[in-house]
Amino acid sequence: MTLKQKIHNTWRKGRIFKYQTYKKMGIARHRKKVDLTLLLLLILCIAVFPFFIVPKAPVETCPEVPVPEVVSTEEVHPDLGDEPVIPAPQTSLDEIEKRVQLGELHIETKGLEKGSSLLALLSQSGVPTKDRLAIVESLELMINVKSLKPGLMFILFKNQADEIQGVSVQISEGETLAVLREEDGSWTPFTATGRVETQTIRKLGTVERTFSGSAKKAGVPDSVISQIIAALDGEVDFVSDIHPEDTFDVIFETKVTAGGLEIGSKQLLFIGLKTHQKEIYRYAFTNKAGLTSFYDAQGRSGEKAFMKRPLKGKSRLSSPYGRRRHPILMYEIFHHGVDLAAPKNTPIMAAADGVITQLGRKGGYGKYIRIRHTEGYETAYGHMNGYRQDLKVGSKVKRGEVIGYVGSTGRSTGPHLHFEVLKNNKTVNPFGKNVISAKQLSGFELEQFQFAAESLHPDFAEHRAGKIPPVPELRPF
Ligand SMILES: [Zn+2]
User: Fold this and answer.
1) Ligand 1 centre from 383 Cα, in Å?
2) How far does residue 301's CA lie from ligand 1's centre (Å)?
């Protein structure tokens, strides 16, 4: 931190403290009025001074007009006298996070979109106009709200009646700003240092019956298990390839606030799987195009661009891509997707990272979702029984994330997923070779990948050399 930033921070802290102080004293919240009051007091003191013999220096009972220069909290405090007139703020960020853990409040995380504003973000979350303006006004005391960068994650704290109780945002690695509602309904700004921490967690285990069950027992969260299944789609069949005594090694990342609150989604960083037939080690890496894929220790990606069977659980290919006799219409038509028969309500996953462009009923498709991916690719999902509740057009989804459930809506003879892959608006065979797949990393990207992988996993060198360590050793992170 430069000296200029330090001075700015100190100035800002002083400003927030004074704001809170004036508010608690019941004086007007606008400084102009306060300044005027203090100025009048000063004039009165000077006028009255010659008529009294004051035992103490008059300066002590007569605070000077606050100077909007570098003022630390220590310098402001003596002005308040010996008696602590100002009660501590009733609310703090720690306290509000504790209330979330107790179930009194719930959180909503929302990213600031490009070209959007904080007011718009709050409006989308159903915050009433009065509170919206008060929140922005309070934040404005700490930061130029117009300068907030897109992508910033806002945490909204709401009570059971869905009324907003606080907003916090981490503006840099070491600093979080918050505005919290006091018991009297007013809003108070806060700053906190180093709030959100990224934790890397490693879990090792042995398969007892199923991979999912054993991983869950070892402490791997559901969302990370989905990412593992998606990352190894096409390489590992989690029903027939996994047997008891196979071992797994999982590393994932989670974001936790100082109050112990987990925010955002968890990200799989590494999966190691040792089965009777093979050993697989995959590292997550985000390439320069911003796409996260899984690579082996040599920097090769065995991953297909799309999952072939975007279902969580067993499925059967009941109808392939291409010409066929339609089971209901009874004449030959072209089947533009593949049909995967699966029990009703089997979770359907996004086949790749993307944005939802359609969500709703669509003729014979019944309940339908369409996702736009990179390079002109799209995927579509039909006959769904229902959608994941919080999804809508414009929602971003990650490969392996659950988007809905298998059903038999529309023109359908039984529960199945109709799955399509489209390239430039034309369907292609999801099982065909013309579907793009990620490649070998090279040059600077390969160096970056190796550096990241080496610092992530203690056995990276062995994975790279093809020498597999006998038993993974438990090494806490
Ligand atoms: Zn179909």
Assistant:
1) 9
2) 30
- Model pTM greater than 0.90? no
Which residues are within 5 Å of ligand 1 (an ion), measured at CB?
A: 339, 418
Which band of pLDDT confidence, cut at 50, 70 and 90, is reported for residue 86? very low
Question: Is 98 in contact with 258 (CB distance < 8 Å)?
Answer: no
DSSP 363-407: GGG-EEEEEE-STTEEEEEEEEEEE-TT--TT-EE-TT-EEEEEB
Count of H-run helices and E-run strands, the chain: 11, 22
Find the helix packing angle between 3-24 and 31-48, rounded to 10°: 80
93-193 and 316-428: identical CATH topology: no
Q: What is the DSSP string of 30-82?
A: SHHHHHHHHHHHHHHHHHHGGGS--SS-HHHHSPPPPPSSS--HHHHGGGG-S
Reported as a single tens digit per residue, the pLDDT across 123-176 is 988 999 999 999 999 888 888 888 888 878 899 999 999 999 999 988 877 788
Under a CB-based contact definition with an 8 Å cutoff, are residues 17 and 10 in contact?
no
pLDDT in tens, 204-234: 999 999 999 999 999 999 989 989 988 887 6
The alpha carbon of 329 and the centre of ligand 1 are apart by a number of angstroms equal to 13
Per the listing, tokens 């405090």 go with: 77
Q: How far is the CA of 291 from the centre of ligand 1 (A)?
A: 29
- 339: CA distance to ligand 1 center in Å? 5
CATH number for the domain formed by residue range(s) 197-303+440-465 = 3.10.450.350
Distance from Cα 379 to the centre of ligand 1, integer Å: 13
Domain 93-193 annotated CATH 3.40.1160.10: no
Report the pLDDT value the prediction gives residue 430, as an integer from 0 to 100.
Answer: 83
Q: How far is the CA of 347 from the centre of ligand 1 (A)?
A: 17
Q: Which helix (H) or strand (E) holds 473?
A: none
| pLDDT tens sequence across 397-419 | 988 899 999 999 999 889 999 99
- Taking the centre of ligand 1 as the mean of its atom positions, its distance from the CA of residue 230, in whole angstroms, is 22
d(CA 70, ligand 1 centre) in Å? 69
CATH class of 316-428: mainly beta
* Phi/psi of residue 230, nearest 5 degrees: -65, -40
Q: What is the chain's mean pLDDT, rounded?
A: 80
> What residue spans define the domains of the chain?
3-80, 93-193, 197-303+440-465, 316-428
